[in-house]
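User: Can you fold this complex?
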Amino acid sequence: MRQNSDFSSEKHETFLPKLINASSDESADILYASGFHAPDEFLYFETADRKGIVVSPLEYSRACAEAKKGVEVIDRSDLMSQCGTERPFLPFFSKYLGVSKWCVPERFPLKTALELSREGIELVCAKSPFFPQRERKTAMEIAEIRKSVHATEEMMRCLHRMLSESKVNAQGYLELSGKIVTCDFLRAELEGNFKKMGYTASRTIIACGIQCAAPHNIGSGPVKAGEPVVADIFPRSDASGYWGDMTRTFLKGKAPKSVMRAYNAVKKASETAMSMIRAGVIAADVHIAAAETMAELGFQTGRGRDGMPCGFIHGLGHGVGLEIHEGPRVSPLNRKPLQSGNVISVEPGLYYPEWGGIRLEDLVVVTKDGYRNFNTMEKELEIP
Amino acid sequence: MRQNSDFSSEKHETFLPKLINASSDESADILYASGFHAPDEFLYFETADRKGIVVSPLEYSRACAEAKKGVEVIDRSDLMSQCGTERPFLPFFSKYLGVSKWCVPERFPLKTALELSREGIELVCAKSPFFPQRERKTAMEIAEIRKSVHATEEMMRCLHRMLSESKVNAQGYLELSGKIVTCDFLRAELEGNFKKMGYTASRTIIACGIQCAAPHNIGSGPVKAGEPVVADIFPRSDASGYWGDMTRTFLKGKAPKSVMRAYNAVKKASETAMSMIRAGVIAADVHIAAAETMAELGFQTGRGRDGMPCGFIHGLGHGVGLEIHEGPRVSPLNRKPLQSGNVISVEPGLYYPEWGGIRLEDLVVVTKDGYRNFNTMEKELEIP
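Assistant: Here's the predicted assembly.
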């Protein structure tokens, strides 16, 4: 196995055959390249003149029907009769294809790598991403993401409706049809509805009050009036595999002034960021401008009295596609320019352990001159 | 990186520190060991005197609240200040812990393995499973799986009810509330209900007619009376991560004799298999007995007229736990004895391209003297 510490040298090499060994749940790359969804591990290969997948006989007929055009489907059992069950399959298969050196993804499984290297097959571990073209979405991909965002907005409006129809009881808790409204109930409603629409959403964030201070706290327990409710909804299409991702923050009743000020700062940061987005802008600069907007409005990022990070404690955004978090990252660490066809989230937020947090997230596609926003839903904190 | 072709030699070695680098979605092992659910990659380590996880600052407080007792939680950013962002984290962390040799799982990512080996940290790729104790469930795990199976049965009964309440129209198709019943509709109903119960089910198999001839065809289109409907339902608990798994085959109206004969053969094979299950029995022998039962009733396994495999074309069962397919396999290839605490599916099936297929699946826990069946639902083909 080649231990290549300077992957950039790959640029000067000729074409290297590619190999992935994973399930489509584990690897968005294998789904991207093959178009085939399978919960169990299968193989994808790409040589100078062939590309294809190797699947178990159980999956063969489905793979023939579902795999992308131009992707050959091979029944593994047809080759197993030549390979036998005693020796590992991949070294045999590499020799069968005449490949002595593969380019593999960063997460290629070590055991398989060792089996290959033991039989003299060289491996070059690709610099991420394995398919750089995944970061620039095709028209088909943009259409699929748009559908997922529309489904997401439909559920965000459903949540808004439930909060709107809730009454505030004497203790300040929300009630709907005589029952206390909890984060868990709201999550279950939305996730259940998504399933009926052909989407899977899990760990949907519906957090309230001080729970919102931790961006990944999914939330639990009863919702109170006057406290922020952060709803970060990210379903995946069961059919296409493309994700939607969207966040709104709501508050039933009248917002405390401090919360409203933070909300307006986050909204302003979103607008600042959006105004900069276009092909060629440095990703980090967009993040920094959003952070500065909030700082100028009095919301600094740093450590709170307890020493815990507070303020704008995460990156402004991330790519979305067949993975919920993929490239390009929009963070201070990414000094690369955005490219047209990038689909990125724009999600400034502010987090304070004293009262919770605010986050607002839209999904946009970067264009030559600017961007197109997949979202249409307004940004309003208070729900009467 | 040690290229160990004889992993059994590990038995004679002293304790090796363990390391996993994955998200809990990718690795049931990291969820098992840490108790922590996270969609993004984190680290689990186990040395002679410490075990813990290393998480991003975003996840730190949640990890402290949710990780298993005895699992130390480390904020990665606390160490990053010592490590810096220039060099890879894991070699630094290994030296920080004083570890020069790790045992890692088969799917350990190649890139990370190369980073470690480049700095002289040895890796031994464990023989699967990484945590052999995962195959023998604790009382807590058995209770969690039981809950998941109960939820599965509730939805199987819901499906039965929908088929029962359907009317057959003049063309022989099922209708419910005046609408044609499709596999897609039934799947969406069940998966939506699961979400509201705190379970995630995806790719639920509701296949009808000749679709049932391919065990992994999830099914689509309208359901006809007189044709088999295979329902293979496998939800995962959002809270615990444990799966349920269950299959029934139904048929609206009167079954053709050939289908009824196949159904009875599969049911008989299930009974034969169950009667053999106890700690100590060789897994393969249970499979073989089920296959022979069906063969004696006239259902041989082999190739059909078109050369495609038909009959009993998959293994009798598999372990179920934090993975939907895990050890022990109950197939002709597994000559090892079952152990008490194994939770396995028992799912004989028959598949014929001419008319479809039948599968019946229960989930059982193996005991010293026999087994306990988590399922209680009867096995009846026809729905009037």
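Chain A is about 30% helix and 25% strand. Confidence is low (pLDDT under 50) at residues 1-12 of chain A.
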